[in-house]
TrEMBL record:
<feature type="binding site">
    <location>
        <begin position="174"/>
        <end position="175"/>
    </location>
    <ligand>
        <name>alpha-D-glucose 1-phosphate</name>
    </ligand>
</feature>
<keyword id="KW-0321">Glycogen metabolism</keyword>
<dbReference type="InterPro" id="IPR005835">
    <property type="entry name" value="NTP_transferase_dom"/>
</dbReference>
<feature type="binding site">
    <location>
        <position position="94"/>
    </location>
    <ligand>
        <name>alpha-D-glucose 1-phosphate</name>
    </ligand>
</feature>
<dbReference type="InterPro" id="IPR029044">
    <property type="entry name" value="Nucleotide-diphossugar_trans"/>
</dbReference>
<dbReference type="InterPro" id="IPR011004">
    <property type="entry name" value="Trimer_LpxA-like_sf"/>
</dbReference>
<keyword id="KW-0808">Transferase</keyword>
<keyword id="KW-0547">Nucleotide-binding</keyword>
<dbReference type="GO" id="GO:0005978">
    <property type="term" value="P:glycogen biosynthetic process"/>
</dbReference>
<comment type="pathway">
    <text>Glycan biosynthesis; glycogen biosynthesis.</text>
</comment>
<feature type="domain" description="Nucleotidyl transferase">
    <location>
        <begin position="3"/>
        <end position="271"/>
    </location>
</feature>
<feature type="binding site">
    <location>
        <position position="192"/>
    </location>
    <ligand>
        <name>alpha-D-glucose 1-phosphate</name>
    </ligand>
</feature>
<comment type="subunit">
    <text>Homotetramer.</text>
</comment>
<feature type="site" description="Could play a key role in the communication between the regulatory and the substrate sites">
    <location>
        <position position="93"/>
    </location>
</feature>
<dbReference type="InterPro" id="IPR056818">
    <property type="entry name" value="GlmU/GlgC-like_hexapep"/>
</dbReference>
<dbReference type="Pfam" id="PF24894">
    <property type="entry name" value="Hexapep_GlmU"/>
</dbReference>
<comment type="similarity">
    <text>Belongs to the bacterial/plant glucose-1-phosphate adenylyltransferase family.</text>
</comment>
Amino acid sequence: MAYVLAGGRGSRLLELTDRRAKPAVFFGGKSRIIDFALSNALNSGIRRIAVATQYKAHSLIRHLQRGWNFLRPERNETFDILPASQRVDERSWYLGTADAVFQNLDIIEDYAPRFMVILAGDHIYKMDYEKMLAQHVETGADVTVGCITVPRAEASGFGVMHVDAADRVTAFVEKPVDPPPIPGQPDHALASMGIYVFDLKLLADQLRRDHADGASSHDFGKDLIPYLVRHGRAFAHRFERSCVRSGAEAAPYWRDVGTVDAYWQANIDLTEIVPELDLYDREWPIWTHAEVTPPAKFVHDEDGRRGEAVSSLVSGGCIVSGARVRYSLLSTGAHLHSYASLYGAVVLPNVSVGRGARLTNVIVDRGVAIPDGLVVGEDPVADAARFRRTEAGICLVTQPMIDRLG
């Protein structure tokens, strides 16, 4: 059974998560971030899936109901949405990642899976969990922890593992100041991906033990995994062993799109001639709620008023009406009017861009109506006064920001 932790607010995405949880944020034109973990589970042959939600979950739950309702109980397939509902007592919502599983342990045990794959619902990657499960069985591990190789200088923001030559975890530290290096690779560290494999019986015992510990924060990375490293058999599973790559992908791809800059970059990277992440791989599809839309349309063919998009992704339902689009991503239902110009723009669904507007290095939130002639991305001082501008120069534009322009 795959259990996806999707309750996080994702506050570093700023206004993008004002109305939705981070896993529900749009990505790649037609998907949501959570679709990657769910698609990995489905493509790996896992047909029992549960999603734990908490923060501002309506958008996420609606997406899951519309896009993931095809699993059928009569085929021994299940898909459960598990909002925080004070099931253990009347005061406690999900207190941590481990508690989000513990509070639903009776539901899980009713299904009686042998193995549990615990997943974070807020990363972009393609991975075959079956290979991680196979390693878990072969090593006789109490817990197997998915991990990626990162430069030591960047590892302080992760849970970091120290491993021996057999990849048994000998130490697990959360966000260390001085991350332990990989044996033989002094400049790199093994960082946790927030992916864990357990035997259900052992996981249930550990969750009950942790729940009874008043000093615990009830979190996998801070509490359960370090405990099992000290008292059990914890092994690391390296992402490169199970990452899914088509012939077009040169290196393993995993992204935490938890900041505005990282989110913008990961979307814009898709516009490359050969992007690092191949969304066109039919052997490993990214499942999602497919809205019924007409094809994208490009109209007008006059100098200065030609509907065109180059090095861009344009989703269904878009109308590029005499506008020019370069190195941008248009999500479903965007409507661009004459003489508008977009460069490095990540446009979420149902956005309208007015005549003559110029948008450079921006993220435009869902449903925003960009006024005629608005210029964003050319004057840093003006941008910072009106919109949310990062140090890297990316502007986030939401409808309340537009409304304040008067």
